[in-house]
Input
Amino acid sequence: MSSTAIATLILMGGFFVLLVLKIPITFALTAASITTAMYLNIPLMAIVQRMVQGVRSFSLLAIPFFILAGELMSKGGISRRLIDFSNLLIGRMRGGLAQVNVLASMFFGGISGSAVADVSSIGTIMIPMMKKKGYDADYSVAVTVTSACQGVIIPPSHNMIIYSLAAGGVSIGRLFLGGFVPGVTLGVALMVISYIIAVRRGYPKEAKYTLSEAITITKEAALGLLTPVIIIGGVVSGVFTATESAAIACVYAFVVTFAVYREIPLRDFRKILYSCLRTLAMVMSLIAAASAFGWLMAFLRIPAMATQALLTISQNRIILLLLINAMLLVLGSIMDMAPLILITTPILFPVVVTELGMHPVQFGVIMMLNLGIGLCTPPVGSALFVGTAIGRTSIERATKAMLPFYATMVVVLLLITFIPDLVMYIPNRFMP
Output
């Protein structure tokens, strides 16, 4: 066996062995990288330099700002206002609270950009409310968790920024715009399946609002809904970059939370910063470790070998895309989203973009939806864990209730895989 093959085995095999031993992903990536470098007689300082270089990117500054803006709006009362506004729009449908749940997640996804934050904020309000109105607990959790996947597709999504970094600098603005139609399509599809189940089970409709109540609800929700408009509008118009838009979103969220809504005292800002810092520390350390890991993969020509291996299976474009989607769905069910983006993008990018001719923006959105489905899939779906904890139901029951929702999400995934215009029309129209 050649030294390159042994080094590849140490890098990839060591990483997966450490994962099986339940070592945190950041430490697993770092340990595998250091061990491989020692075998190849690469100075360890080179690994450290790659880790530092991985987080020295201006675009990455957008991540802490987006996390902070989402946390401010989440804690400041925007979740309840978005739920009220969604109830005003579609609550009168059969199974109205389920429809409200999906629509509120769609709105909140445009603020937080995180599926877990969506489940935590929307779920703590909607799941108890749905159970009180007679909805089954497993159904309530299923709707909440699956609809939260919109948060990783609908702009702004900090996971798209991570993908942009891993893919070598794909336009963040075009990625944001590319996620809009697929995110809305996913939301509408989930509303349809929710309605069908609600009709079969006879779930109730919600009461009507008076005109004065409707006006009040709309006015209160408008400030929160302006957040994604400011971010996307500024980026598309060229007024500011994605990073600058994230900083402006933070300022806007701070003013709305503490000066307008005023549901929490200013002293709670310290707790919000601490929570954001914990999240940011995990994300940045993961990016640093994955940067060194990815550099070693490139050094060992693992992406090129993966490309050749996939092309030997089949030359048919449809079969290859189905195979890649299936692989990402499986990986998404056993690993978290951010590390998978950083690890799989350099491997699959040459196959999908270079060999199959798919646009990098379309591939990015496909990857977001694939791995977003993984967030609500056992055994390690973080959104699923949060939802079942809030709904006080077992993972087994919730997973069974999600089966029709899983099928719906896979259908949407296939649509955006084989109909490029669903992703590319808006980016090509507004940011050609």
User: Anything to note?
Assistant: Residues 223 and 256 are 7 Å apart (CA to CA). The chain has a mean pLDDT of 85. The two ends are 49 Å apart (CA to CA). Residues 269-299 form the longest helix (31 residues).
